[in-house]
Amino acid sequence: MNTENPGCLTGVARAVALVVVLPVRLLWDALAWCLGQLWRWILAPVGRALGWLVHHLLVVPLRWLWEWVLAPVGRALWWLFDRVVLVPAAWLWRYVLAPVLRAVWWVVDLLVVTPLGWLWRWVLGPVVRFAGAALAWAWDVAGRILKALGRAVGWVLWHAVGRPLAWLYRTVLTPLGHWLRAWVWAPVAAAARAVRAAAREVRTALFGGPR
Asked: Buried (b) or exposed (e) across 131-140, using 16+ Cβ within 10 A?
């Protein structure tokens, strides 16, 4: 039985790995070196220069503008707004508008709300409740009257119209119908059937039967 030398196979595998990995590693190291040089000599100086420019051309002027212009102007405007608007408005509300509103509400309560409440409690409320109770009682009585009247009208119509019609149908029309069906319609129907049969026989004799 032939067996391959494990040491030979290991050497071949290492050679293949070296041939494949070495160029990749060299390419990676070259790329990393290039990127490092690019960052060291171009990107980092450019970034620091841009940072210096932004700091000295934008941040510093804005900070100076906020500290020496905007903040003092804002504080001055707020002080002016507080002294010219807020303080007079608060004083006006405290010493003029609030007392006037309280006085107006006191007058309205005294002249309108309290009399209306008293009127509703002692006059309108009882009248409305009494009227509601009276209307409910009248509605109930009217319903009872209408029910009794309906029953009375039904009784009168039944005895005046319904019962005579029922008697007429039961004692006259029903026997008459039975008599007509037995002694009139049945003979007429038989005669009609005989006539149709005779006519069919005559037609057959004259023109022959169906082909």
From this structure: eeeeeeeeee
- pTM, two decimals, is 0.37
Q: What is the pLDDT of residues 141-191, one digit of tens each?
A: 888 888 888 888 889 888 888 888 889 888 888 888 888 888 888 888 888
Cα-Cα end-to-end distance for the chain: 108
What is the token pair recorded at 170?
Answer: 């039961």
∠ CA 63-67-72, rounded to 5°: 145
Tokens for 36, please give them.
Answer: 């490092």
State the amino acid at position 142 in one-letter form: A
Residue in this structure with the two tokens 């209408």, named with its chain if needed: 146
Q: Measure CA 5 to chain center.
A: 83
Quickly list H helices, the chain. Answer: 6-38, 44-54, 60-65, 71-81, 87-92, 98-108, 114-119, 125-157, 163-168, 174-180, 186-207
The two structure tokens encoding residue 38 = 């690019």
